[in-house]
Amino acid sequence: MIVDDDPNISELLRLYFDKDGFAVITCLDGDRAFDTFVQSRPDVVILDLMLPGKDGYDVLREIRRVSEVPVIMLTARGDTLDKVVGLELGADDYVQKPFEPKELLARVKAVLRRTDGSMEVKQTNSNDESKDAVSHPGLIVDRSRYSVRVNQLEIEMPPKELELLFFLASHPNRVFTREQLLENIWGFDFYGESRTVDVHIKRIREKLDDAGDHPAWQIKTVWGVGYKFETAG
Fold this sequence. Notes:
The chain is an alpha/beta fold. It has 8 helices and 12 strands. It is 45% helix and 20% strand. It is elongated and about 60 Å long.
């Protein structure tokens, strides 16, 4: 699904993606975007930030209330704050205009591969939970069920937050750079900035802390390097 108020861009992208085998739905304004999303149930959304009616942030908020479908935002702005706000609201990636259609196509394929990979894990490892679950005192992260429990409390997390927490918790006391985390969670062809990792870590920490104390472990910042899941003892 492509949401952009410029009909020329929408048509160009529709033709480009259609040629690559995608079924494309387009929408030219923010007011109709959410209804179109609900009706079409797309696998990925390309969402312009500046739209007539509701802006891209408002549309993203509406989508995130009902779905974790991958969303790639388009913007003509170069302000880092715009990117951070979008990531905080749940955007998966950002592309700044003007852009090459083939780059946008590569990003779409990247997020779809990550989504497909998650489904494969759920199917092939359903009888071997040890590969898809990691536990520490007061914490269980189950990737097969996409669930997180802290102090027996179920915590809601979008897929990328859960995968990032699962990855760190699976390698306790090992330090990973932001670039390593981008490579392992988002894939080799993720074009986002390392700030993406910081935003996701911040949201994970907030949710874990809201669930109560967990003195046996923490996600620790290693300044100048990256992050690690640190355990006591």
